[in-house]
Write a structure and sequence with these properties.
The protein is an all-alpha fold and 151 residues long. The protein has one domain. The chain contains six helices and no strands. The chain has helices spanning 3-24, 28-53, 57-79, 81-86, 95-113, 117-141. Helix 1 (3-24) packs antiparallel against helix 2 (28-53).
Length: 151
């Protein structure tokens, strides 16, 4: 077991585990925020596993998850806009930890990968993760109740 796999295991246990528990329990406003965090962490775990096992296919999975994860959060924000407007989630403190976690994982991977297409893909994934979390957090902060049916 190398350092990349150890980091992936630590991130799974200390990050993804509590995030999944947040998705499974509690009020809707916490579940949506935990779902957004869980997709970010799983994407970072996939990047670490790709380096640890030397499998580039995991990077492709991380790219797909970086694209679809925030979209899923936006869909939930749209479908649950009425309930989220009554009790808005607290996403103020989630953006900077997401940015920090992304930088702490993507930067060493870029350094190890070296210049080339693989590094560009890692940088694109990092940018998608950061931008997706910022957009999703802003959407959750300001759900539009007039867009929800029955409100």
């Amino acid at each position: 077991m190398n350092g990349w796999l150890t980091a992936a295991a630590a991130l799974l246990l200390c990050g993804v585990g509590p995030a999944v528990a947040g998705v499974a329990t509690g009020p809707v406003r916490r579940r949506v925020v935990a779902q957004n965090l869980a997709t970010l962490l799983v994407c970072l775990v996939l990047l670490l596993l790709a380096q640890g096992y030397d499998r580039s296919a995991y990077v492709d999975l991380a790219l797909v998850l970086a694209l679809l994860g925030p979209v899923g959060t936006l869909v939930y924000a749209r479908l649950l806009a009425g309930e989220l407007a009554r009790r808005p989630p607290r996403t103020r403190g989630t953006i900077w930890p997401a940015v920090l976690a992304t930088v702490l994982v993507v930067s060493p991977l870029c350094a190890v990968t070296g210049p080339g297409r693989a590094m560009v893909k890692l940088l694109v994934i990092g940018a998608l993760l950061i931008a997706g979390n910022v957009v999703a957090a802003r959407a959750l902060d300001d759900p539009s109740p007039e867009a929800a049916p029955g409100v």
